[in-house]
Amino acid sequence: MRAKFVDCGAAQYCLWQDAQRQFNVPVDVNTDAFDPADLPTMLDGYDIAISDHTRFAPGILAQCGGLRHFIYFGTGAANILDLAQAERMGIEVHTIRNYGDITVAELCVGLMMAAARQIAEQHMVLRAGGWKKLEGLELHGRRVGLVGFGGVGREVARICRGIGMEVVAWNRSPFSDTNARSVSLEELLSSSDVVSLHLGFNEATRGFLSRARLRVMKPGSILVNTARGALLDETGLVEAPCDGHIAHAALDVVETEPLPADSPLRSAPNLTLTAHCGFWTESATINQMRLVLGIAKRLVGTAAP
Description:
The chain is an alpha/beta fold. It has helices at 10-23, 39-42, 58-61, 83-88, 101-116, 119-127, 151-162, 185-191, 211-216, 234-242, 282-300, and strands at 3-5, 28-29, 48-51, 69-72, 92-94, 143-147, 166-170, 181-182, 194-197, 221-225, 246-251, 271-273. Helix 3 (58-61) links the parallel strand 3 (48-51) and strand 4 (69-72). Helix 1 (10-23) crosses helix 11 and helix 5 packs across helix 7 (151-162). The two termini are 18 Å apart.
């Protein structure tokens, strides 16, 4: 089988070369910009497509009749191709998990601290020539509630316990972990000083943290989302800081990315935003590449490294 990585970024390429040499698996790599309409031509003669971020629209995928495998640099392959269409075409879709659990967890806790100490607002005031001291919230001894308890949630629990926070969690399936106590969703929302989202996204979890559930949250609490933007009712979120129910929200993800210029989130008070960068560190990127190459090596059929 022949494999092609269609959208390797220039900054990724050196890391990819190092990882590829370790795995000794033949993969052709494209680092040039291209029109997605050119994908069928680019993949002509290839059995395996590897994609970091490029979306394969239904009309484009339909023209890639020679593909038998599709490897995605993440978990949510449904974001970049129609899974049902791929199945009908006989294309097996492969995803990777847990490559960036620590990296995302570190940003999550960083956003908690930024929200608790109002770092972003003070930074902007000083940048503009002012001087403004804002009272913060000490997180030690406070309760953090994790909605979802997968790999990232477990890492967040470990870090939060390390700084002296009480950690509770709600998960759709039972769990056992020394760093967190399982509670009901209602108890978590109503009693936590910080609520952090860590659910996987699918149609069942779309809008999970609804306007009604936001109102169940403890008055004056902090909300952090480093999972998926569509888990959250953004309209309800904008209202909550405006009336003071939520003291601060910190989001690394939003429903529409890039965030539209006219989005109310851009001007909402007490809101800290980052540009979906939670997964992006060199360590996580190397982990991604090793997992992708492991799949490619198995499919190509060469011996394990």
